[in-house]
Amino acid sequence: MSKVLYMVIPCYNEEAVLPETSKQLREKLNKLIKNKKIDKKSRIMFVDDGSKDQTWTIIEELTKKDDIYAGVKLSRNRGHQNALLAGLMTAKEKADIVISMDADLQDDINVIDEMVAKNSEGYEIVYGVRSNRKKDTFFKRFTAQGFYRLMTMLGVDIVYNHADCRLMSKPALEALSNYKEVNLFLRGLVPLVGYKSTICYYERNVRFAGESKYPLKKMLTFAFDGITSFSIKPLSMILGLGLLILLISIIIMIYSLVVKLLGETVPGWTFITISIWFIGGLQMISIGVIGEYIGKIYYETKQRPRYIIEKVIDK
Ligand code: UDP
Ligand code: MG
Fold first, then answer.
1. Alpha carbons within 13 A on the beta-carbon side of 1
2. Is residue 49 within 6 Å of ligand 1 at its C-beta?
3. Which atom of ligand 1 is nearest to the CA of 14?
């Protein structure tokens, strides 16, 4: 039996690309339906993230013309990640598998065939990974790759060069729905869900119309959110730094005393120098200790599921 596929496409002011995107995706899905790769109840679900242009009107028109289209309208702009989650959670009620993709067709839609094939091989999550960044500007390439490296360094399990183009099965989506955190960074959350997963490579194109909805400022906020929503390493680093400064203060202490004994100082210099370094180190350690507790609170408040059961065998 073939599975019901829902494509989830977040859209924010995408009137320029929607007519073309919807057409290409419909062709793709119809072909898959014809070849019995997916069920005929499959849908292309557009999520309007509070657009200010004609996006929703276009989506409505599409749903009237063809049942293959579905629409979800958010009450206001909530950002890419939230719009995506809204779509995934709505789609999972009816779908067996969901593929998310951007509205601007930067992700090659031919990756859909491969993702569906991987799913029928038993993979619950298929990450779309861009094979190269030739079409990016030097700046984007440099910052993006730096970001993935930094995340890995900070101990966040993240798939290199994977954006939000991925396939997730119903069980994986059910598991994802147990993560209640508000600061959403799906790229970090999905690997936490576990399940059998794999990677599909594709070439990423340039946006064919409209402008990027991720200007530099949004990109930086996104990166910062990603780090602070997943890693408490920066907090632990404070403790490390404090200990380092305390160590330095001991060296400074010895040095100051030697200089004093040699009689090359003005009165009070030794005392002040030693105090500054010692108190500095002590304060930093104290902040670090508080940081460790805050780190614990941070994890507790997220109320992430402690485990996800994939299967139970009980005869
Ligand atoms: N997007 C959204 N809400 C926002 C910003 C962006 O739903 O507040 C959608 C947008 O319509 C697109 C996807 O997120 O489908 C990725 O945005 P974009 O292509 O502008 O980002 P880039 O590819 O330049 O990083
Ligand atoms: Mg784009």
1. 4
2. yes
3. 11
Task: Pick the ligand that lies closest to the CA of residue 84.
Answer: 1
pLDDT at 291: 93
Regarding the beta carbon of 106 and ligand 1, being less than 6 Å apart is answered: yes
| CB 201 near ligand 1, within 6 Å | no
Q: Does residue 136 have a pLDDT over 80?
A: no
- How many structural domains does the chain have? 2
Pairing label, strands 5-11, 97-100:
parallel
- Closest ligand to C-alpha of residue 163 is 1
Q: What is the pLDDT of residues 75-120, one digit of tens each?
A: 999 999 999 999 999 999 999 999 999 998 888 899 999 999 999 9
Dist. CA 130–CA 302, nearest whole Å: 31
What is the rounded radius of gyration, in angstroms, for the C-alpha atoms of the chain?
26
The reply to whether 17 and 164 lie within a common domain is: yes
One domain for residues 89 and 205: yes
Range of the domain at 265: 233-302
Q: Which pLDDT value is given to residue 31? A: 92
CATH number of the domain encompassing residue 140: 3.90.550.10
* Helices and strands, number each (H, E), in the chain: 10, 7
Do 252 and 211 lie in one domain? The reply is no
Q: Is the CB of 83 under 6 A from ligand 1?
A: yes
